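Milestone 3.1: sequence recovery, worked example.
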């Protein structure tokens, strides 16, 4: 059985075009944007486009497909108008995911913008509870850890624990981003640092809540709070850190998706996926 590895793929030319790109790169799992991630108003997915997407998916060798929501959404905002606008945008994202039969959506917790961590976490938690009825059946909302930049929530693992506490584990989970964890100060570059990081995460949140992993090296140093992705082995985490991840049997079945820099075609994704597959086979 092939490892559940893939990358974020472009939907340029139509949602269904992502499968051709994913297959060329050698993906067995995939992540997409269902709409422009830098705009509030996402393009509506027509029934015809959704049918083409589902048909192409069925023909392909790719398994689970996830969405990443808009970067503009901020469920932690102290501004009521912006928070309501964010909830509307997230509901629209959920509707697109339902039409496409996606497996889940990755979301950033948001930024408290000066209202304080606790107030921000409470706003996000309330929004997640409110949005639960809008989530499709057999679908996961995956809260992503962040680089802890500025007033962004989700850098410390305790934030993730607070957001998920009491929410159903079959509907809400974590997307663990390696670059973000490193930037937030969690040492992943050595076996000892990796073990300590995962032990802390397991204690506070639970490794069983990790349902997706973004495999990205960090261009900046550990603890920089700067979110800059690098190719696998070319950043602060390095090959040793990703070797630890790829050989961690507790996470072996968790889909792992690249968000590393792209080239003119799928060559860079092919390179990074090959490195990850090799690391999975090597001896620590």
């Amino acid at each position: 059985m092939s490892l559940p590895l893939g990358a974020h793929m472009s939907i340029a030319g139509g949602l269904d075009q992502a499968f051709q790109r994913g297959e060329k790169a050698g993906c067995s799992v995939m992540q997409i944007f269902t709409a422009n991630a830098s705009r509030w108003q996402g393009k509506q997915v027509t029934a015809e486009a959704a049918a083409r997407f589902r048909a192409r998916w069925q023909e392909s060798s790719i398994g689970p497909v996830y969405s990443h929501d808009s970067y503009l959404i901020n469920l932690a905002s102290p501004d009521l108008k912006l928070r309501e606008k964010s909830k509307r945008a997230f509901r629209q994202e959920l509707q697109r995911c339902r039409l496409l039969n996606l497996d889940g959506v990755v979301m950033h917790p948001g930024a408290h913008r000066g209202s304080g961590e606790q107030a921000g976490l409470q706003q996000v938690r309330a929004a997640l509870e409110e949005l639960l009825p809008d989530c499709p059946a057999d679908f996961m909302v995956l809260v992503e850890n962040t680089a802890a930049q500025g007033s962004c929530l989700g850098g410390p693992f305790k934030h993730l624990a607070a957001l998920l506490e009491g929410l159903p584990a079959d509907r809400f989970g974590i997307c663990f981003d390696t670059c973000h964890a490193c930037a937030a100060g969690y040492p992943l570059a050595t076996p000892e640092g990796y073990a300590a990081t995962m032990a802390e995460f397991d204690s506070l949140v639970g490794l069983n809540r990790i349902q997706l992993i973004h495999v990205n090296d960090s261009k900046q140093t550990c603890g920089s709070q700067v979110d800059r992705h690098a190719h696998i082995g070319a950043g602060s985490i390095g090959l040793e850190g990703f070797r630890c991840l790829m050989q961690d049997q507790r996470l072996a079945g968790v889909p792992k998706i690249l968000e590393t820099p792209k080239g003119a075609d799928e060559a860079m994704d092919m390179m990074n996926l090959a490195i990850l597959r090799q690391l999975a086979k090597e001896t620590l």
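The CA atoms of residues 232 and 275 lie 7 Å apart. The chain has one domain: 63-281.
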